[in-house]
Amino acid sequence: MFSKLFGAFGRKPVLIQGAGKLPEGQSKRVEIGDPLAGGVEIVLARTGGKLCAVDRLCPHEGGRITDGPLVNGKYVVCPLHNYKFDPTSGRAVGVACSDAKTYRVEEDGGDARVWL
Ligand code: FES
């Protein structure tokens, strides 16, 4: 248990240059590494002034959460069945579904650091 706990604290963030410039109500897809070789695809979203990161893998049936304008300025969406997710928490909105995976984000000037 302790190694798991310390491992979580010991992780190094990934710097995403220019991510801090994402406007309110918008989202942007970011590939970190090669997704076919263990990399991760995330969607950065800004809502309520806060920059958030959500994994692109939809917890419903494996679709991919898309980027672009947020629905109602708040939610990212998976176009496969149009499920909406709150990028601040990963919670599905108005449907019974597991949460989307979210990541810790800190803004640093015009850049952002994401803990995967
Ligand atoms: S697979 Fe994403 S909404 Fe169904």
Question: What distinguishing features does this structure have?
Answer:
single chain; 116 residues; mainly beta; Rieske Iron-sulfur Protein; 7-stranded antiparallel sheet; 3-stranded antiparallel sheet; 1 helix; globular; disordered N terminus; binds FE2/S2 (inorganic) cluster
Put the structure in a nutshell.
By secondary structure, the protein is mainly beta. It has one domain (13-115): Rieske Iron-sulfur Protein (3-layer Sandwich). The protein has one helix spanning 2-10, and strands at residues 14-16, 26-32, 40-47, 50-55, 68-69, 76-78, 83-85, 92-93, 102-108, 111-115.
Q: Could you characterize what this model shows?
A:
8% of the residues lie in helices and 40% in strands. With 116 residues, it is mainly beta. The protein has a single domain (13-115), classed as Rieske Iron-sulfur Protein, CATH 2.102.10. The strands form 2 sheets. Strands 1-10-9-4-3-2-5 form a 7-stranded antiparallel beta sheet, with no helix packed on it. A 3-stranded antiparallel beta sheet has the order 6-7-8, with no helix packed on it. The radius of gyration is 14 Å and the shape is globular. FE2/S2 (inorganic) cluster (FES) binds at residues 58, 60-63, 78, 80-81, 83.
C-alpha Rg (nearest Å)? 14 Å
Number of helical stretches of at least 4 residues: 1
Q: Please tally the β strands and state the result.
A: 10
Q: Report mean pLDDT, rounded to a whole number.
A: 91
Largest sheet: 7 strands, antiparallel
One letter per element, helices H and strands E, the order comes to: HEEEEEEEEEE
Large-scale geometry: globular
Q: Which ranges are low-confidence, i.e. pLDDT below 50, for 5 or more consecutive residues?
A: 1-7
Bound molecules: FE2/S2 (inorganic) cluster
Q: Considering DSSP H and I runs of 4 or more, what fraction of the residues is helical?
A: under 10%
Sheet/helix structural class: mainly beta
CATH top level assignment: Mainly Beta
Q: Going across the major beta sheet, what is the strand order?
A: 1-10-9-4-3-2-5
Strand portion, in percent? 35-45%
CATH topology: Rieske Iron-sulfur Protein
